[in-house]
Design goal:
The complex is a heterodimer. By secondary structure, chain A is an all-alpha fold. Helix content of chain A is 76%, strand content 0%. Chain A folds into 2 domains: 58 residues, no CATH class; 211 residues, MetI-like (MetI-like fold), CATH 1.10.3720.10. In chain A, helix 5 crosses helix 7 and helix 10 packs antiparallel against helix 13. The chains are: A mainly alpha, B mainly alpha.
Amino acid sequence: MTSLKVEKTSSAAERESKNGLATPAVRKFLGRIGTTVFVALVLAFFAIPILWLVFAPFDAHPSMNVKLPEFTLKNFAVLFGDSSALSSLRNSVVLAAGTMVIVLIFGSIASYALSRVRIPGREFLLYSLLLLSSIITGTAAMVPIFLLMVRLNLIDSQLGVILVLSAGMLPTVIFILKDFMDSTPKSYEESARLYGAKPLRILWDVVIPIARPGLATISVWAVVQVWGNFLMPFILLTSPDKTPAAVIMYTFYTQGGQPNLALISAFSLVFSFPVILMYFFVSRRYGFRFHGGIKS
Amino acid sequence: MLETSSSKEDAKTSVRDDAERQPGRKSTHEDGDVAGLGKRRAVAFVAPALALVSVFLIFPAVWTLYLGLTNYGLTGSQALNPQFVGIDNYVSALTNPAFLNSLWLTVLFVFGSALIGQSFLGFLIAWMMMRVSRVVRGVVEFFVLLGWIIPSSVSTFLWFALLDGGSGTLNLLLHTPGTAWLLQFPMWSIIVFNTWVGTAFSMLLFSSALASVPPSQLESARSAGAGAWAQLRDVIFPHIRGHILTNTLLITLWTFNTFTPYLLTAGGPDGRSEILPVFIYKLALQNGMLGQGAAISLIMIVLNLMIALVYIRLLRTREQ
């Protein structure tokens, strides 16, 4: 079947060349032009919006459009003089670190137990948790989550946001960490046990060091997820001094009046920089394949 | 698949089974329980994570079933004493033109930005990147990826600036001064924006898929005179069908559930870009109609479940 189709097109190609439209050299040349035009268009589409983030923070008179900057660093001075901007960055660190710690601790002990002990219904548990976490998204469940937090008195609490975000991420974390744990050699644990080490001690001294690459990847992933998350802190936190950078950034340009572009541009860069850095650090070390699958 | 790998471990460890030390736990050891954790302690290790997930993920979804049948409100008597109203919320949602409009906009958004935008463009970029130098490829992939990793409130501002009606970059480039893109073309704006954000995933997935196509097959197709389209149809597509499936369903789910367009247009003007997540937010949390919002939340969770089940089913039939 395949060869038949190929023959058909090859005869079409012959017809074309009989008409003198495309000798191989001409065709190759046209192909190269086509590729170049395509690359240029793709680069324009993806790079032009970013250029503002590259130039405006260093521009003495930042405007909405992209232009070569009149170099200055005073926008960063504006940023570091703005207490709400700085406290929002601190809040982002609190949310990201808190979520990372919970997810790492709960995720690693759970995945270790699931990897080493065949609890009845283990596979079912893993897959159904993964399924649930991908269909019960923050967007779809924002109403019940909001009401639950009102009932639990966790509205306007950073702990509340951390708990909700951790719960949403844990199924994925356990799934990935279990894969890591499955692939770590078990002989070290056996010998540790022969010397009389207790399970928690084995986990801490033997398993965690071996699984470190997996834990590092999960940590970075968790931080990146929380750092950029807008919806949960937006609906669950009400006082400005608890708001993270993702939400403050939004209020900067929707508050009405003229947006303060000096502040916004410097803030955008400082706020984006850590995740860009972490992303490329992890992807260089562990490859993109992993990341692609689980950003939500 | 996971089962077979762990039973292999069983075979290895049971050879060295240390029955004297733990006579009562022999069976757990055979499971590959090399640290002597035991079932009870294993359950205790899983419990904290499971508790958190049950309370903050599973319970809200189940609770929606009940909330959607009440007239829960954010303030006033309906906040203190919500009444049971049965399926009224579902009836009024399905007869509400604003809801139906939002549903239609969501279909357009998912179709335009996920299926056409991200999948198609992502594949095209992955395909073209096979024939350029490594440097060009690196540069292109870097910029495509930036859109995906920059925090959403920053990327929405970048587009805010790009599409600004006063002196936005797009107006300068196209010589169309004063065109307020976000107000005049709100749906187009969020569709193109979401394509910009999400194409990286499809690009990465398809470039690893394309790398797995055996070059010898492509060569023999080429030497048989197959053009680009014939190569795609007869060699590439049969190889990457599974990747296309995975990509389509994941990005459909993500695009359906993204709240980010709210930051760009806030659903406006006049609800012209009010996709379902924005509709729920405005109805439930801005206007305080929590019962109705819960009903629509449940509709959304069910739609998510349907997408996920279609995916699982298609994967199963492929495996067989």
